[in-house]
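Batch 3, record 17
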Amino acid sequence: MKLDSKIPEGPLDKKWTNHKSNIRLVNPANKRNIDVIVIGTGLAGASASASLAEMGYNVKAFCFQDSPRRAHSIAAQGGINAAKNYQNDGDSVYRLFYDTVKGGDYRSREANVYRLAEVSTNIIDQCVAQGVPFARDYGGLLDNRSFGGVQVSRTFYAKGQTGQQLLLGAYSALSRQISKGKVKLYNRHEMVEIVKVDGKARGIIAKNLVTGELERHGAHAVVLASGGYGNVFFLSTNAMGSNGSAAWKAHRQGALFSNPCFTQIHPTCIPVSGTYQSKLTLMSESLRNDGRIWVPKEKEDAEAIRQGKLKPTDLPEEKRDYYLERRYPAFGNLVPRDVASRAAKERCDAGYGVNKTGQAVYLDFASAIQRYGKEEAAVQGLKNPSAQEITDLGKKVVASKYGNLFQMYEKITGDNPYQTPMMIFPAVHYTMGGLWVDYNLMTSVPGLFATGESNFSDHGANRLGASALMQGLADGYFVLPYTIGDYLADDIRTGPISTDSKEFEDAENEIVERTQKLMNAKGKHSVDEYHKKLGLIMWNECGMSRNAEGLKKAMKEIQELRADFWENVKIPGNINEYNPELDKAGRVADFLELGELMCKDALEREESAGGHFREEHQTEEGEAKRDDENYAFVSCWNYKGNPSDAELIKEDLVFENIELKTRSYK
Amino acid sequence: MNLTLKVWRQQNADSKGEMVTYKVSDITPDMSFLEMIDVLNEGILSGDIEDKQNYGPVAFDHDCREGICGMCSMYINGEPHGPGRAVTTCQLHMREFSDGETIYIEPWRAKAFPIIKDLVTDRSAFDRIIQAGGYVSVNTSGNTQDANALPIPKENADAAFDAATCIGCGACVAACKNSSAMLFTSAKVAQLSLLPQGEPEREKRVMDMVKQMDEEGFGNCTNTGACSVECPKEISLENIARMNREFLRANLTSSK
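Prediction for the assembled complex:
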């Protein structure tokens, strides 16, 4: 298979403009005769569905939740980046582009990232026009905060609920098109297969989750906006229903899967507290604007804290190790996520962890409370404020910035983070890898597009904070609606896609067979048991650090687990009813294949880059060691049956505008 | 902790439901309420927990499990989202309960939210209220004016944000003796009426959304305030007052 990324010619800053001016269009009358299916209603899906419908296409939107407003973009907390330079701190499109490529450890495409940075400013304008209530300052203008891996403040936010507000904006645009009849919504529906006709994606088989019925839907193009696959680890910050099945079905149908091993482990999550645990909760990266991360300097103190004999607030400054500030003075607590996560793991592995399990570090707001308290006292004109007054004022300021996050933390842990530092630990959060797409966001299957987290394109080996929301909306509002026309221009005379064809029938029969097989296993073990086992293998061997031996072992274990699953899984109830266990089984079956491919990809990539840390490839100081000579490529896996047999195709990454450098945040 | 659960079981929309008793053991205080139900379901699946009538695992809506998606929705001891304040069911932890307690678990009860199975209800009526006008009619365009071209007073932006934090879970309807959707509807009306972007469609929006709300079969508001007390996002009753003003204003001034 030959890969054509279709990156336009010309200088970097003219590529997108020129491309838009030159690609083919579909005229308004013809758009009315073209149907597009969009899978998922998160930021990428809802924005794409709304925009395509506004342009005149007929859209069918699918989500497995009961309402499109519940897609997991809703849970994004901290913010969205845009190169507006409202803070006059030297930001620019180029700088956002540069930060993103560097943050991704030079494993993303220059042209895609530049386009992302370019349209970032439009996103903020569009969202404000929709009535998204971003945070504002007293002059009524938009406020910004700073995120990891950058030295400017370019992150727009709505308290700790930025994802919610942006998604509700996109959902409102989608709702408007639903009311006009331009989008037909299928909620509580899950895509279970992509149907190809003459090699092109021409529709899907969807399952109505309430009745269990299979439905055929034809279209001229299919857009996946189905999110990431972090739930392969069982425990992650993803929603319970988030799954990799749509992308995996696409892969099985011939869409290349790129960089599957690039997963993001987010440094600031609430630590695991027990085996019953169903998910992990993120504490926004924005907290690292003001929170300082530390562990005790002495092992004895860490030990005493673990045993409950010592309180963190009793430990004097000189006995604390603010290890990020120590190791990375230039970026301090705001180093990128992969760096911060590894540093936490290093301290905990060395015996400095602070909760019962030794798998936690502190995130402390005491000094921020003092700093803000003094500022606020000055603003209010208080003369000689008491220590208590300063603390009270400081807490109020911190509450106004992070109130909902502090409340969330207290609800889960029972600790009050205004009084004692938060305990945090890294957890799986995002997947940079995903379906391979060209510059037009089309996968290697003609007519099948992938947007948002489901594609691989913009974040390289590590995503910077507040960039996922940016990419989801960039793809859905400003990229796909243009680029899809270039493909659909060939379909203006095709007419409606019939679902009475052999291709649809075969696809449907295969799903029926697969489902029967699952139901017939009638074994002893629940779906969750398998999912938890898989998650543990992935976390231990393909998590924050990886090595060849462990990865090989993991692949073998996953193969065995998969075989066991198909023999011995237990699914209650029937096919033709609301059966969440059956739906879960289908998703875990796919994770059991995807997990193996992730390990294979990690094994193949003999370097450390971003979130992918191979123990064999590190500097003396324990930093990631890239190998640009041999691994400056996107790995693209071609499905050949068993994941271990997948064929590797390489897309070489060409850097014409950025010099490849060792990524340093020191 | 060992607990007795009384859970509403209902096969599907057409069948008759009943309360069924289950016993769960080894529940720890750090578990969330939904994780406790996970334990119940694993027990039913493995046969460790007796399920006499063979209903199988309890169906319940849940997704993000961090209090923001609005999917989880159940009465716990007669209260939407249970005894906690400003929490969804997934944010409720078992430390709120004590050993030996009996807990009653039921689905939202409202005509406009028909039951699908067990604790799962159909809340698409909320989506249709938004579709009736809960948006600003602006198409996607790379040429909208600069986001800072129109300053918005901080108080208004903050009040709009507070209203916009509604997660659409339906606890307000479930809490209301009239099954009224006023708090939900007013939160969106208030958000958009506080922002200049919402101004052009201000009258039409409130009239269309209220009309849809009535058509869906939600009851009227009698100002008991239960909705706001049970709301996991503490959406204020002031929004209802604002919507009433908006509605009155629209009826008096609109040309339609």
